Amino acid sequence: MQTKLEKYITFIGLGFFGVLVLVPFIWISTIAFKKQIDILMMKMVFKPTLFNFEKLFFSKEATFFNDIFNSLVVGISSTIIILVVCSMAAFTMIRLKIPQWITALIFLWVIVFHMLPPITFVGSWFQMASSFGLFNSRIALILAHVTINLPIGLLIIASFMRDLPIEIQEAAFIDGCSNRQVYLKVILPLLTPGLFATAVIVFLFSWNDFMVAMNLTAKATQTVPVSIATFSQQYEVRYGEMAAGSLISLIPALILTFFAQKYIVKGLTAGAVK
Amino acid sequence: MNKKDLSWKIYSLLPIILILIFLTLIPLVNIFYNSFFDIRWDDGAYVYTFIGFQNYIELPNNKFYFPGLKNTVKLALIGVIFQMIFGFLIALGISKIKRGKSFFVSLFLLPILLPPIVIGSIWRLMYGFDFGIFNYLLAFFGVFPLDWLGNSSLAFISIVILDVWHWTPFVVLLLLAGLESLPTDVYEAGRVDGTSGWSEIVHITFPLMIPTIIVTMVFRFILSFKVFDEIYLLTQGGPGTATEVISFSIYETFFDSDNMGLGSVMSVVSLFVISALIIVVLNIIRRANKYAN
């Protein structure tokens, strides 16, 4: 049995680590509402201002609305493609009879690809995109995000697929359903929680990606992380806008964590070690 | 089997196979091919000049690649050790509490789910010399301000601290899943024998967790080789090569210096090194899983 003392130590310890996680976010929130002069003077007591947000969205050279739009288009499109491609493939590989080596080969390659640094592929993608006239297009970035997030998508969906009861599927086959009908009418509805978990994680990873987006886009198609990074690269680092942009870019993750924590945890653990 | 069923099998697998071939395999072949050429972008087209192994011969002369490889391995090793220690303690703590569990899980999910570039921005501000929070706190205790990112021995440590902060939560998540799937009967047997508290952790929990710990550790180790965003934003590999990592060397050579041939060689060498590690890792994972069952 736990003693009272152990309980207190556990709570104090967790609280300590929890504060360590939170401090950076609290710090950036205060900076987002400070004027540049207050940031530079390290003022702890300050008059909150929306100045940074105004500049971020409405200054003459502001691109932030456009950046958010790009991020959403790329995130949502790549997520939908991954859901369709991976759920079909996972159903066929796990639930239908196909030669074993095909399944083994696909899974092995997907896992190995997942572990390789994406920068080793981005050079080729860049070359391919510019040869096909797709550099600085959303299509190139969507395809790249589909590719980098495909492994985690497939692993999560496959792990949910393995947990589905096989009896319903067999009953459907006995009733004369074709593979396509079983996939559409039996598997997909049962798989909804898995698809949801996958969608949340894959969308966030696409929304968060900086490295691939930076190398495949230019001003017109840049995503939010790329935009945030540019604030630190000008002559004078624009801390206020950097903080304001950062704060806004946290919103999807915060909302999704709040509403779908259970699915995210299940998805991340399922996609990690298999 | 009827024809219709076979055609489903083919067209359900075709998209994933096409993506893997065109966007992972062909790029891989392309990188190998590139590594034997001098490549220039001229008048809207790439001009390839075959130079044999020249790029490979030049690689050791590159000031960044091998120091970067060394740093990457060092960062992965040191980072993973601390992540495992803190991760195990936190996971253990969360598994013990009854109330507030999901609150703490959400809290520790944040660093995994938020954009790394934002995490980089935040830490860059916190490490700032004149107005960062670390130096503010040091000044509070009367200690001189430190140049967290500009001093070459300190910069690497600063990156390690950030890496541990960023990825410990991931370890927490995986270890927590492991802890919660441990058989309860062993604990009950232990309690009958009078084990409790600390000795329960040392003699029951830890040994049972060894397979999960090993799998998590090697997995995190390999994924550490991907580090890029934070380095890009915080130090750009500097000062000197103090925080250079392979992904950043490849990026700079390929995209900044437009030396696509040499950049490809760096990619090829990195792929070989990491593939060798992956083979070792997959073997370790297989063995750990066997031990677990």
Main beta sheet of chain A, described? Answer: none
Order of helices and strands of chain B: HEEHHHHHHHHHHH
Strand content of chain B: under 5%
- Poorly predicted parts of chain B: none
Q: What is the string of helix and strand elements of chain A?
A: HHHHHHHHHHHHH
CATH class of the largest domain in chain A: Mainly Alpha
CATH class of the largest domain in chain B: Mainly Alpha
CATH fold topology of the largest domain in chain A: MetI-like fold
Distance between the termini of chain A: 34 Å
Overall outline of chain A = globular
Radius of gyration of chain A: 23 Å
Helix amount of chain A:
over 70%
Termini Cα gap of chain B: 37 Å
Describe the structure.
The complex is a heterodimer of chains A (274) and B (293). Chain A has 274 residues and is an all-alpha fold. Chain A folds into two domains: 4-52, no CATH class; 61-272, MetI-like (MetI-like fold), CATH 1.10.3720.10. Chain A is 78% helix and 0% strand. Chain A is built from 13 helices and no strands. Chain A has helices spanning 4-32, 36-40, 51-58, 64-95, 100-115, 119-131, 138-163, 166-174, 179-208, 211-216, 224-230, 239-249, 251-272. Chain A is globular. The mean pLDDT of chain A is 87. With 293 residues, chain B is mostly helical. Chain B has two domains: 3-54, no CATH class; 55-292, MetI-like fold (Orthogonal Bundle). In chain B, 39% of the residues are buried.
Jot down its keywords:
heterodimer; A: 274 residues; mainly alpha; MetI-like fold; 78% helix; B: 293 residues; 2 strands
List the helices and strands and how they pair.
The complex is a heterodimer of chains A (274) and B (293).
Chain A: H1 4-32, H2 36-40, H3 51-58, H4 64-95, H5 100-115, H6 119-131, H7 138-163, H8 166-174, H9 179-208, H10 211-216, H11 224-230, H12 239-249, H13 251-272
Helix pairs in contact in A: 1-12, 3-12, 4-7, 4-9, 5-7, 7-9, 7-13, 8-9, 9-13, 11-12
Chain B: H1 3-34, E1 37-42, E2 45-50, H2 54-58, H3 65-96, H4 101-113, H5 116-127, H6 133-140, H7 152-180, H8 184-192, H9 197-223, H10 229-234, H11 246-256, H12 260-292
Antiparallel strand pairs in B: 1-2
